[in-house]
Design goal:
2 domains; mainly alpha; two-stranded antiparallel ribbon
Length: about 150
């Protein structure tokens, strides 16, 4: 990890992380009052402080109208567990959970008639994979800053 990423990871916590998360999810310019209202911050100056902090870190840029736009999406700290598709921030484990669940459903659909020891072991393995990845997905979503 380079020194810039270490600095960003150290600073990107609490309310600053919530503001950055909000800006990432909007995928468009955000204003101080919009951030303050959306995140229920106590005043516009609190929102402005965190937006300026993100700007100093190089994650946001400010235009001539005073609105902020995401300049750089980083994968540090808690953000490593997510990736962005448009406005959506999805946990990485979600795709593994869906993959194992579809494998289990497909196997049950096509091979349920012959249930022997080998099939039981396969079903147990796939079921365990499903349970683990769905659990991890739910745990990460509970810890998300939204």
């Amino acid at each position: 990890m380079d020194p810039d990423e270490e600095k960003i990871e150290a600073e990107l916590k609490g309310t600053t992380l919530r503001v950055y998360w909000y800006a990432l999810r909007q995928n468009q310019k955000v204003g101080v009052r919009e951030v303050q209202r959306a995140l229920k911050l106590s005043s516009p100056s609190v929102a402005a402080h965190h937006l300026e902090k993100l700007m100093r870190l190089g994650l946001l840029e400010k235009d001539a109208t005073g609105e902020y736009m995401v300049q750089q999406a980083v994968q540090v700290g808690f953000m490593r567990f997510f990736f962005r598709i448009g406005k959506f921030m999805l946990p990485r484990h979600l795709f593994y959970a869906v993959f194992f669940t579809s494998m289990l459903a497909g196997y049950l659909l096509f091979h349920l008639r012959a249930l022997g020891t080998e099939q039981f072991l396969l079903l147990t393995s796939l079921g365990s994979g499903c349970a683990i990845f769905w659990y991890e997905t739910a745990r990460i979503l509970r810890e998300a800053p939204f």
